[in-house]
Design goal:
Strand content: 25-35%
Shape: globular
Radius of gyration: 18 Å
Structural class: alpha+beta
Number of helices: 6
Number of strands: 12
CATH architecture of the largest domain: 2-Layer Sandwich
Largest sheet: 7 strands, mixed
Distance between the termini: 48 Å
Number of domains: 2
Length: about 260
Amino acid sequence: MSSNWVEELQQARKDKLIGREILFFDRVDSTNRVARDQAFQGAKEGMIILAESQSQGKGRLGRAWESPAGVNLYISVILKPSIPPEIAPKITLLTGVAIANALARATGLNALIKWPNDVFIHGKKVAGILSEMEAEGPKISFVILGMGINVNWSLKEIPQNFRETATSLKAEAGREFSRAEVAGEICEELERGYALFLKEGFTLRMREEWNRLSWINQKWVTITSMDKKYEGQVQGLDTDGALLLLDREGKTQRIIAGDVSLRL
């Protein structure tokens, strides 16, 4: 059964790549899990899995993603890029840019990226990205791009233990937003960025746009990566998407993956 906002989104995306086919569920364990199943069964590129709620929503590193019903967006997109598997992580970077731009356009709020996969508004997390790839040797079978966006979660409904760190578009703007409109803007921005990426790669222009939207550039941070800790000032992205960190000795470290915390 499809609710009105999903029909509205379907109508808006019917002639596009991302969202021309939408599978909608009232409740699933995880939209990424459903998307993987669909991809293994031969679903076409651009299919979206949408759910009103998730019982086992996932963030990075196996963390839970709170997924209450009827207020937020839980979306997974199936992509089938003809690129080498080692380039696939850059899709997460361009997705961060797409979400930040889309949220700014839909709400007027200043949305910024926290490397590698979160979007923040006023210093609190409003969206997260979880990418999963399936590959055989040098060929990608598919990429599942999972996105959770806190849209109309009211502040009092956000669990107490997340209130210091999480927010929603409604909490920040003081009004509700159309989920169809927010999802439509995200799909549109993602489709544009993805098409450019397939055509040109992760270009200087994309890197500059990411750096412009970075919440952590020039800030002092601690990054935990593979049981190691790095401290330094964030200098932005390198040409290959690694994060550049200038330590106290003046040496630049390149961080490929990790968890960032700000040093206050």
